[in-house]
Specification:
This protein has 337 residues and is of the alpha+beta class. It is built from 13 helices and five strands. Strands 2-1-5-4-3 form a five-stranded antiparallel beta sheet, sandwiched between helices. Helix 5 packs across helix 13 and helix 12 packs antiparallel against helix 13. The longest helix is centred in the middle third of the chain and has 35 residues.
Amino acid sequence: AIAYNGVVTDITERQEAEERFRALVEQSLVGIFMLRGRKVYYANPRAEAIYGYPEGASHGKAVKDFIARSDQPRVLEHMTDVVTGKLEHAQFQFEGRHHDGHSIMIGAHVTRTTIDGQAMLIGVLQDITEKLHTEQKIKAYTHQLETAMEGTVQAISYMVELRDPYTSGHERRVGEIAAAIAAEMGQDEGFQRAIQLIGGLHDVGKITVPAEILSKPGRLSAIEYEIIKAHAEQGYEILKSIQFPWPVAEAVRQHHERIDGSGYPSGLKGEAIILEARIISVADVIESMASHRPYRPGIGIDVALEEIERGAGSAYDPDVTAACLRLFREKGYEIPA
């Protein structure tokens, strides 16, 4: 008699799982692909649709056929780094070459896998052409808005200068000094742009002050000084309804506040004063003391720096003061013309 020994395994569940996985990949809304060497081993229907290939037509084609010539070296280098294990994965964008010859922008993410002992790449890709086009349109529109806003600020500054011609250029210079201090403090470019704009508007409230007080060559009376001091609050009232992306109106209101509470209009102390205002206040003192005024000649930058140095921690924010002193004394920064 002949006897047979064997093992019977029910693979129904595994087959069902494989079929579900295959259906998931085949119906995916993103392109899925596998590369062996530098050729397409597999591409799902969505990947082929992105490139305009009929189903199955991309199999075996060279990877470089799907990449614009200018981007081929960079993309192939990324792929090589992942295959060799130099990188675990890579994510990149490149100009793709559609089946009909036109260009498309592709976003891809690839990682390494092994099949039958051979290293391969598996990844996903998407057509991001429209997304990039939309981003470019938004960027251009944002730039247009920023340009219009800057033009508006310049017009307002010019209007203030017409009321107070003896301080012509003061607001612009304060804005530039403040932006330089912000950069020295490590603030990003967005903050630097904001602080420069705030500097250009910080004295807008002076349009409510009578011209004869603004240009008075002699010492101000107590009443006249109180009228001048009101410009900080008036500037806030003028700007508060404008929806700036930064706290412009509040910084304008606070730019004469002092760390020890001796400033105006609210007698705020320490960090109750927003950083933008703390920077503007130092830049304002530097520019004002170094420049000529109707009631006195310019005192000079050295005296101005000594003033903020003495007031560091009491009148002026110590970090802002330190950055300002480094800027002028160590890095040779000069007040803009």
